[in-house]
Amino acid sequence: MAPKHESNQCPMESILGQIMGPWTPYILWLLSNEESLRFGQLSALIPDISAKVLTDRLRKLEASGLVHRDYQPTVPPTVYYSLTDRGAELHEVLQGLNEVALRWDAEDRKKRLIPVTEIIAAE
Amino acid sequence: MAPKHESNQCPMESILGQIMGPWTPYILWLLSNEESLRFGQLSALIPDISAKVLTDRLRKLEASGLVHRDYQPTVPPTVYYSLTDRGAELHEVLQGLNEVALRWDAEDRKKRLIPVTEIIAAE
DNA sequence: CTGTATCCGATATGATACTG
DNA sequence: CAGTATCATATCGGATACAG
Fold first, then answer.
1. Which residues of B touch A48 (CB under 8 A)?
2. pLDDT string in tens for chain A (123-residue length)
3. Of B88, B95, B5, nearest in space to A121 by CA
4. Which of A79, B58, B113, B115 fits a 20 to 30 Å CA distance from A60?
């Protein structure tokens, strides 16, 4: 499958292409709080995600080396997901985004404006 | 239009929802280098983007307060786009992502691996 | 010049059912 | 438990034509 666009001299877009899917930053955040999480735990922590999409996200994160998948062929099988070093580093960088998001939100609410984090939802 | 997902306790996803579209980080980067850019200039600097998508991105960035649109009702009209303070701040934060992307890329190439920034393109 | 309107195909997501 | 398969739907991006 070819990407929707290429070669625009913007390396960060490649990274964003990997974290950009819905739920992905949240998955990274959840994994950053635990040594590891099993598929079912992630599924329970993100009630609105379907198994298919959760699988897609995890496979993509695994392919890009951000998440490690530890498959234990027990019966029934148990699978543990954890952040790789890169995954942890990416999560650290994303904290800057989170702080900005929270601060803007607070500013907007103080001014009784629609918070920037809700603008998309309000479209 | 409703968003694809909501309310997952992850503020940064709201921000990412705004910068996540293809081209958007690049647009922010272009605007960060200039006082302002006109629609046609942006269009020329991003040859592969269609007018429709460029308009969509700019409208979204404007709605979220990241970009300022200065419409001059001359004949023909001239429109200048520039970063707001928030847009500039977001761009700063994104530089961290860019640096990580470039470093990982260099590491992967040294090891003769497929660079992480090309994994999506290789799918 | 700076867009808008429209149609269309590609892609992504969601729901459901099913399996090793 | 941890997914996969399938189908239906929704959204997105691209191309073209056109307008104030």
1. 5, 8
2. 333 444 456 777 877 776 667 788 889 999 999 999 999 999 999 988 999 999 999 999 999 999 999 999 999 999 999 999 999 999 999 889 889 989 998 998 888 677 777 765 444
3. B5
4. B58
C-alpha dist (Å) from residue B40 to A57, B31, B79, B84? 37, 13, 9, 20
Q: Do B120 and A11 touch (CB under 8 A)?
A: no
Q: How far apart are CA A56 and CA A54, in angstroms?
A: 5
User: Phi and psi dihedrals of A67, rounded to 5?
Assistant: -130, 140
Q: Which nucleotides on chain D have any atom < 7 A from a protein Cβ?
A: 1-6, 11-17, 20
| All residues at 6 or more sequence positions from B27 whose CB lies less than 8 Å from its CB, including other chains | B42, B46, B54, B57, B58, B61, B67
CA distance A22 to A32: 17
Q: Do A15 and B120 touch (CB under 8 A)?
A: no
**Nearest residue, CB atoms, B119 vs list A63, A102, A105:** A63
**Residue holding tokens 């980067």?**
B29
Enumerate residues 6+ apart whose C-beta is below 8 A from A93. B96, B97, B100
The model's pLDDT over B63-88, given as tens digits with 9 standing for 90+, comes to 989 999 999 999 999 999 999 999 99
Q: How far is the CA of A120 from the C1' of D19 (A)?
A: 29
How near does any CA of chain B get to the CA of A89, in Å? 8
